[in-house]
Specification:
mainly alpha, A middle domain of Talin 1, 2 domains, three-stranded antiparallel sheet, 17 helices, calcium, transport, repeat
Length: about 425
């Protein structure tokens, strides 16, 4: 259990902070790292790393993976020791379920990414149409009381209706969208038209009537105002801000990777191999658990060093050395894409610690009817994961000063464990 706690703390503190230091690049005016440009030295606010949105989602998954630690401690928290064994069994089931869910998510992640990118493109089309209407001097899209300006929306409708038959057809809408310049976005015009038609054409007659058009544009305006609430009711400003925000969301999702990606000839075999390797790793962990503990205990007796600190400090450095070297090598390339891969690997490793490794450990405790008394270790894991999870799951840029936060958590976690174990006697 000390090894599990030490491994998680090591990944989220020393390794995470080192990846920020090694991968730092100059930060632009909009706080995005500039690939391979590192001219500001160790500027705490002027240099740092940026990741994509997918990496922040990995951090959120890591935070959710703390659930088994909360459940397994419930008998201790509410002081009903008789329910400890049942709680451990429930925690094992939940941990295994989270592992399977995480694996399934990894399999379908490319599909989920494409869906998110398609949605981001659609929102950018919405903002582009609103901005185009504003720029063409058709009038203010919002009235003085903050409501959609229907006469101006009608002008836009008549502008799109080229044949003046009082309906907007598929071809007319396509011509209008093609006429709008969507910069730096790989837009499929037919798909964009189909999405707008499906959203506006509530009658289902494959045409957009005036009332449908006014309602659709009004809903877009209300959505834009909700998205950029701080931009006020002045239509030109909030439409511009909405357009820039949708472009930023698209740019964060789009795959700018310049890494060579190999085609997988037989994906089924890759999945099977991955599952077998997971099972093999589980068997190895279960088989060598006792010899590992014995070796730590013997070394502890020989050196008079508490066994927990050997497993918490020394062993994680050895067991995570290959993962640490791989992460630092990727971070050293100083690119947003490689930084994203680096931190995703770190969060993924912690997620597997919190689910698969905990499930194996709890299975041994349950089958051998051992006493569960690891409140200090669980608290350290929970606090470090929660703090770093909340710190990383809502942001994509990390200035250099953030590495100090991670580094500081490492000695603090050691001090916390020492106080709980040796001063308050939690173990």
């Amino acid at each position: 259990m000390g090894l599990l706690a030490g491994s998680t703390v090591f990944l989220l503190t020393l390794l995470w902070g080192s990846c920020v230091v090694v991968g730092k690049c100059d930060l632009s005016d909009n706080s995005i790292s500039i690939d391979t440009k590192d001219t500001r030295g160790f500027s705490l606010f002027g240099s740092g790393v940026s990741t994509d949105l997918q990496t922040s989602y990995a951090a959120r998954i890591m935070t959710v993976s703390l659930l088994p630690f909360v459940i397994v401690q419930l008998p201790k928290i509410f002081k009903f020791p008789s329910g400890q064994r049942l709680t451990i069994l429930i925690t094992i089931i939940i941990s295994v379920g989270l592992v399977l869910s995480y694996c399934i998510y990894q399999i379908f992640q490319p599909w989920i990414q494409r869906r998110r990118l398609a949605y981001a493109k659609h929102k950018h089309v919405i903002s582009g149409i609103l901005r185009h209407a504003q720029m063409q001097a058709l009038g203010r899209l919002v009235t003085s009381d903050g409501e959609p300006n229907k006469p101006v929306i009608e002008k836009l409708f008549y502008k799109i209706d080229l044949d003046e038959d009082r309906v907007v057809s598929h071809s007319e809408l396509r011509a209008f969208i093609i006429g709008i310049q969507f910069e730096n976005i790989d837009l499929n015009e037919d798909d964009a038209v189909d999405r707008v038609m499906a959203e506006f054409d509530t009658s289902g007659n494959a045409r957009i009537e005036k009332d449908e058009f006014i309602l659709g544009i009004s809903n877009w305006i209300k959505e834009a105002k909700r998205t950029v609430e701080n931009s006020g009711s002045y239509s030109k400003k909030f439409v511009h801000d909405f357009h820039m925000k949708t472009k930023e969301q698209h740019d964060l999702l789009i795959d700018n990777s310049d890494e060579g990606v190999e085609e997988i000839e037989n994906p089924t075999m890759v999945y099977v191999k991955a599952i077998l390797l997971l099972l093999l790793g589980t068997i190895i962990a279960a088989t060598f658990a006792d010899p590992l503990v014995d070796a730590v205990d013997n070394f502890s007796l020989a050196t008079n060093i508490p066994s927990f600190f050997i497993s918490f400090i020394a062993m994680p450095l050895a067991t995570n050395s290959s993962e640490a070297v791989s992460a630092i090598i990727f971070a050293a390339r100083k690119k947003k894409r490689t930084s994203s891969l680096t931190f995703s690997e770190v969060y993924g490793g912690v997620t597997m610690n919190n689910t698969l490794c905990l499930a194996v450990f709890l299975a041994l405790v349950y089958l051998r009817q051992l006493q569960w008394d690891f409140s200090a270790e669980v608290l350290v894991i929970f606090l470090v994961c929660l703090l770093m999870g909340l710190f990383t799951c809502f942001r994509t840029t990390f200035p250099l000063w953030t590495c100090l936060v991670a580094y500081l958590l490492y000695p603090l976690s050691l001090i916390l464990v020492y106080i709980l174990d040796f001063k308050f006697g939690w173990s």
